[in-house]
């Protein structure tokens, strides 16, 4: 792999492996609200929050960190508007004080907030308008969690940019391939990725351990590990699930996300880290394996899009299997078959929003990654023509993208309707 391609792959990792506190969709609402408050220059007296259906889906049931256990769109917006740091990006709520947490609870009763299901062609679309007296401030995010496309104050436009096309900050993902990812992992100078991946290791393992220490959500991680403490396959799934238990349950520890999702960042990394630690793998081997698992996640998600009716943990679970294959000495052939085997197993899992059951879906996705790996090691595989599987890993990945982005559009709309009606 030449130096220019190494640089491009490294840029993709740097753009995607970002720290975030809490589920990223409510945090994006908090970020937009914090920007609106900053632009307004005063505490809002009321809020208008206009969001696409997928934002409703991913915010409705999840606990917003630093709110005292509050859930939902209004809680996220008020937390951002009253206590958020607009300059902190996806760590917008990282500096909230105890006094501010109490104030957010009080303001939930006092500050009116109108929530509108926006009529928008964009799957990811958040607009927050904050009002104080005769003044107002409008902030809109489209495409991904910090992509500001419009900022206005009382009718004056302070920022406006084109929405169509890829976000300017994103490196072109068309260069990604399974073969290229393996070549990159073998060739990249570790100093180019060490800081990025060490932060992922530290953050995501810390929240996994927290999820096993204390009760969060449905305690999927603890349930998996009970009676299987020495079984490495259970331990990998349990630690990944426990991190999601904590994150969905409002834990105030940050994670390093992947493809805009903390659960995907957890799923792609934690099983690989647990395996490396349990088997005594070197730091170099672990870091290179994490390059594989993270980039395979990004590659799979590129065709799917940020939000879909297709569960993102599926992609990350397949990618975890790829990273484990790399740690065990596998390269392109082994990793390609692991990915194809895994996506053939779990591509039917739907995303019905961020909530406690995400941890269980993560456990299932990691299990599929492990099964895909073990299948190939035992000389077994799925073949082109088996369902959505086509000959060649890239053709199968393209099919998954079509299924998730286009084939499941009506499924996504129906899921949103079901969730709004409950």
Compact description:
With 422 residues, the chain is α+β, with helices and mostly antiparallel strands.
List strands and helices in order, with pairings:
Elements: H1 3-16, E1 19-21, H2 24-40, E2 46-51, H3 53-59, H4 73-83, H5 98-110, E3 113-117, E4 125-132, E5 135-142, E6 148-153, E7 156-160, H6 178-187, H7 194-213, H8 220-225, H9 232-248, E8 254-256, H10 262-279, H11 283-304, H12 312-327, H13 332-346, H14 358-377, H15 393-407, H16 409-421
Describe this structure in words.
There is one protein chain. The chain has 2 domains: 19-160, 60s Ribosomal Protein L30, Chain: A (2-Layer Sandwich); 171-421, no CATH class. The longest helix has 22 residues, at 283-304. The chain has 16 helices and 8 strands. The protein starts with a helix and ends with a helix. The strands form 2 sheets. It has a 6-stranded mixed beta sheet with strand order 3-2-4-5-6-7. Helices cover 55% and strands 10% of the residues. The mean pLDDT is 93. The protein has 422 residues and is α+β, with helices and mostly antiparallel strands.
Overall pLDDT: 93
Rg over C-alpha atoms, rounded to the nearest angstrom: 21 Å
Q: Report helical residue fraction.
A: 55-70%
3D shape: globular
Number of strands: 8
User: How many discrete domains?
Assistant: 2
- Strand line-up across the major sheet: 3-2-4-5-6-7
**Quaternary structure annotation:** single chain
Order of helices and strands: HEHEHHHEEEEEHHHHEHHHHHHH
The description of the largest β-sheet is: 6 strands, mixed
Distance between the termini: 52 Å
- Helix run count: 16
């Amino acid at each position: 792999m030449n130096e220019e391609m190494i640089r491009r792959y490294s840029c993709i990792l740097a753009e995607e492996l970002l720290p975030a506190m809490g589920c990223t969709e409510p945090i994006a609402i908090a970020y937009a609200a914090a920007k609106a408050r900053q632009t307004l220059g005063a505490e809002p007296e009321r809020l208008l929050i206009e969001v696409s259906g997928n934002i409703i889906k991913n915010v409705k049931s999840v606990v917003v960190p630093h709110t005292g256990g509050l859930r939902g769109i209004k809680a996220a917006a008020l937390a951002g508007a009253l206590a958020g740091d607009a300059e902190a990006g996806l760590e917008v709520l990282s500096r909230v004080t105890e006094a501010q947490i109490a104030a957010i609870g009080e303001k939930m009763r006092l500050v009116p907030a109108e929530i509108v299901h926006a009529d928008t062609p964009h799957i990811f679309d958040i607009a927050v308008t904050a009002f104080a007296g005769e003044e107002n401030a409008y902030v809109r995010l489209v495409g991904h969690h910090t992509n500001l496309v419009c900022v206005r104050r009382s009718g004056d436009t302070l920022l406006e940019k084109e929405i169509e096309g890829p976000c300017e900050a994103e490196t072109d993902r068309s260069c990604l391939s399974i073969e290229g990812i393996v070549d990159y992992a073998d060739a990249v100078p570790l100093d180019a990725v060490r800081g990025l991946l060490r932060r992922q290791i530290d953050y995501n393992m810390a929240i996994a351990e927290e999820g096993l220490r204390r009760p969060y959500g449905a305690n999927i991680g603890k349930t998996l590990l009970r009676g299987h403490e020495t079984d490495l396959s259970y331990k990998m799934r349990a630690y990944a699930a426990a991190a999601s238990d904590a994150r969905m349950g409002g834990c105030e520890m940050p994670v390093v996300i992947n493809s805009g999702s903390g659960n995907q960042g957890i799923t792609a990394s934690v099983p690989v880290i647990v395996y490396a630690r349990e088997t005594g793998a070197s730091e170099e081997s672990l870091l290179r394996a994490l390059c594989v698992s993270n980039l395979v996640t990004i590659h799979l998600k590129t065709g799917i899009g940020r939000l879909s009716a297709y569960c993102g943990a599926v992609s990350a679970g397949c990618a975890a299997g790829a990273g484990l294959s790399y740690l065990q000495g596998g390269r392109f052939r082994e990793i390609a078959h692991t990915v194809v085997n895994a996506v053939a197993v779990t591509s039917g899992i739907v995303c019905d929003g961020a909530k406690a059951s995400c941890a269980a879906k993560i456990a299932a996705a990691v299990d599929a990654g492990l099964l895909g790996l073990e299948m190939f090691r035992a000389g077994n595989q799925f073949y082109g023509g088996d369902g959505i599987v086509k000959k060649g890993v890239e053709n199968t990945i393209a099919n998954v993208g079509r299924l998730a982005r286009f084939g499941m559009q009506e499924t996504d709309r129906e899921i949103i309707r079901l969730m709004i009606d409950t």
